[in-house]
User: What shape does this take?
Amino acid sequence: MTRTDKRRQHFIRLMIEAGSPEEELQAYRTAYPGIKSDKSVMTSSGRLLKIMEIADAINKGKREREEEMNEIRKQERIRIAVAQVAHETEIDAKLSQIAMGTYRRKRKVPAYNRKTKVFEIISIEEEPSETDIIAASDKLYRRKGSYAVTKTDITSGGEKIKANTPINLTKVPLETLLELAKHINDTENKG
Assistant: This one.
């Protein structure tokens, strides 16, 4: 690579990073330090920019840099969004604190200051109300599936009986009927 090629490559790299006309002129001054006057810098850099391969390389580099910056911005937005989304365990922990009555929420309320004789907004901490505790408990139970129906598998002679099929209890073995009755009794005692 010749000395001219090295200077041109250096000029291209600096131009890709330049964001303003002043920075573009400074890019030329840095790549070609021998030229001092502003008029000479503008003329010489303008001449270089008319060379298609230099202009194309700068444009391509600027496009690639812009794409990189857009991807970085996109990844940062995604990172921020992900950080703002509560995880299931965080929600369960907060609901548990409310259900146990240990969570303290802060609420802003107006209060009259007797010294200054002005209403001010103050922050107070509140314990969860009984309604809050019941609602949080309910949500926790629903999330954990505690309200789900318990399903019992009934078999007759080794064959599964479909739920929509009427059951002829005379064909069901006595042991199975006793198991079913015990299960129903246990379920009723739990509720």
Notes: The CA atoms of residues 5 and 11 lie 10 Å apart.
